[in-house]
Design brief:
- The chain is 55% helix and 6% strand.
- It has three helices and two strands, in the order ααββα.
- Strands 1-2 form a two-stranded antiparallel ribbon.
Amino acid sequence: MAADSTKTSRRVFEEIWNSKKLELTHEIMTSGYKHHDPQAPVSTEGIEAYKEFVALFHSAFPDL
């Protein structure tokens, strides 16, 4: 089970954040995903909200 979580977390950072492949969000995350980050500027609940959250960071920090 822990190996699955590690693999999924790695995919999130490598494919969604680093490679900017937001279209893979639906494949990697569940529809009821809730992002828990007290430092986040917006509350994210669901896949579309998470995609907007990532896009916000990509637009603010294009070399991220």
